[in-house]
Amino acid sequence: MVNTKIAIPIANGALCMHFGHCQQFAIVEVDIKNKEIVSREDKTPPPHEPGVLPAWLSKEGVKIVLAGGMGNRAQNLFSAQGIEVMVGLPAQTPEELVTSYLNGTLKAGQNVCDH
Questions:
Q1: Alpha carbon distance 112, 67 (integer Å)
Q2: What spatial distance separates the first Cα and last Cα of the chain, rounded to whole Å?
Q3: Share of the chain above pLDDT 70, in %
Q4: In this predicted structure, what is the pLDDT of residue 23?
Q5: Domain coverage including residue 30
Q6: What whole-number distance in Å separates Cα of residue 79 and Cα of residue 86?
Q7: Does the pLDDT value for residue 91 go beyond 80?
Q8: Residue 46 forms part of a structural domain
Q9: Fewer Cβ atoms within 10 Å of its own Cβ: the N or the C terminal residue of the chain?
Q10: pLDDT tier at 47, thresholds 50, 70, 90
Q11: Closest CA to 72 of 82, 85, 53, 89
Q12: What 3-state DSSP class applies to 66?
């Protein structure tokens, strides 16, 4: 089974609610079949400009992004890279979010980004 990489924008150890302004991304490798976290690496993203983060995360092998808020244009850019996006998520740690995702209990909420 091939593992999947999930990216979560973080600030101060938890989900950053404004996607494009996060300090780092937690890139969490997961074993979907066994519903477990394999590894986590925190990476500093390149400077934020339209289209940069989707291309960068795609090169990192990310297939899923868990976010608080993200504009429609950014969501479309991720979709074009073949990356699934969930928005409106709570400010929890990457491990809490990924575990909920793997267990099928993570629910998307209201997108807190309006651009």
A1: 10
A2: 38
A3: 96
A4: 86
A5: 4-63+72-89
A6: 11
A7: yes
A8: yes
A9: N
A10: confident
A11: 85
A12: strand
